[in-house]
Write a structure and sequence with these properties.
This protein is α/β, with parallel strands linked by helices. It has two domains: 111 residues, Rossmann fold; 228 residues, 2-Layer Sandwich (Heat Shock Protein 90). Helix content is 50%, strand content 19%. The protein contains ten helices and twelve strands. It has a five-stranded parallel sheet, sandwiched between helices. The radius of gyration is 32 Å and the shape is elongated.
């Protein structure tokens, strides 16, 4: 507790100048900030202008005594949770019970003993610290639960359509399996099924990584990899489905670009960016993938000439990333979990995620990362 005591602010309300001086000397040996108030009016003024963690309250004062002031504070939302220790020579059971009934947490009798005073103050501040820790952990837990619920809502929304499509594809294939004249049409249907399966794999991969990361089970193992070859490999896996809508890839890659990065995480980042670009591209269009090499960092850009985003959607995305917000169930289809995963892992690796878009013109999504990984594991 010792080193952390400096963060606590203590208010002493005492109308005796001698006691006020003694309390100040004793408390300042252990605490950095001690406020002094000779009466209730000055105490209220200090409380209005400062964050007070604990009050030492004299009972017998002038116009408003300590009991009255405490009773008033407990009716005020901002001050009702501040613990009050009464300083008093009134030690009758009636006065002690009254003080506790009004919200006091402890009594220190006059004349006070230095060691007893400090021990009682420290004990109450430990309780304050424990209470705040519980509140903070409760908020963090609630945030985690909210993020989980948002994620489940997105998964339920985004999985419904591709699973329905797969079901329809399998029905078509099963109905025409014995029809020789229909077999030429199988190839296009299979490509469509492959496209849906790729989307499902990407969603489930995102879900798995997000869940592992939140549970602290996701370890990144940076390794030396040729980023240009990694990009080429990812594009090759997406070409069959892109051909269904006659979408081409134009690779503008600096060659022999080496980075230290976890290969599985990099594949997730590239897959999300390229599937996002393919999903929102117009038929018969081209997706440009750029890789630019510099001294200490590399830049990857995925540019499509598709639907683009409205300014409202762009601002929503920017605010979510800037504020480190989680997922929203009503996010634009495909722009919730996937892009957040990209942002999350780029940031985790000390990189920068960026995008720009124009409605009905297209979008550019990309990231910059250092060549040498800042992560040990």
């Amino acid at each position: 507790m010792g080193a952390e005591l400096s963060k606590y602010n203590i208010l002493v309300v005492e109308d005796s100048e001698i006691n006020l001086y003694l309390l100040k000397k004793i408390l300042e040996e252990e605490f950095t900030t001690v406020f002094l108030a000779p009466n209730a009016k000055e105490a209220l003024n200090i409380l209005d202008n400062n964050n007070i963690d604990l009050i030492l309250m004299d009972v017998m004062m002038g116009e408003m005594d300590g009991f009255q002031l405490t009773e008033r504070l407990k009716t005020m939302e901002r001050f009702k949770d501040i613990p009050v220790l009464f300083l008093t020579s009134l030690d009758s059971p009636e006065h002690i019970v009254k003080g506790f009934d009004l919200g006091g947490v402890d009594y220190i009798t006059k004349p006070f003993n230095r060691e007893e005073l400090l021990r009682r103050v420290k004990h109450q501040l430990k309780l304050v610290d424990s209470y705040r820790t519980i509140i903070r952990q409760t908020q963090e837990l609630q945030e985690a639960i909210d993020n989980r619920d948002r994620l489940y809502a997105i998964m339920a929304h985004d999985l419904r359509t591709p699973i329905s499509s797969l079901k329809m594809i399998f029905n078509i294939l099963s109905m025409k399996a014995d029809d020789p004249e229909s077999r030429e049409q199988y190839l296009d249907v299979l490509y469509t099924g492959n496209d849906v399966a790729e989307q499902l794999f990407c969603m489930l991969d995102n879900f798995l990584k997000w869940t592992k990361s939140n549970l602290g089970l996701l370890s990144q193992v940076p390794q030396d990899l040729k980023l240009d070859k990694t990009i080429e490999g990812m594009v090759e896996t997406l070409l069959p489905t892109a051909k269904l809508r006659n979408i081409q890839f134009d690779l503008q890659l600096d060659q022999d670009v080496e980075v230290q990065f976890d290969l599985d995480i990099m594949n997730s980042i590239l897959r999300n960016l390229m599937i996002n670009a393919e999903k929102f591209s117009n038929p018969n269009s081209t997706i440009i993938v750029k890789l630019m090499n510099s001294t200490d960092e590399v830049t990857v850009e995925v540019i499509d000439s598709g639907k683009g985003m409205t300014k409202e959607v762009q601002e929503k995305l920017k605010s979510r990333f800037v504020l480190h917000q989680g997922f929203e169930a009503n996010s634009v289809a495909g722009k919730g979990l996937g892009l957040w995963i990209v942002y999350y892992f780029v940031q985790m690796n000390h990189g920068i995620f960026f995008f720009e878009s124009e409605e009905n013109v297209g979008s550019k999504f990309g990231f910059k990362i250092p060549k040498k990984s800042p992560l040990k594991n």
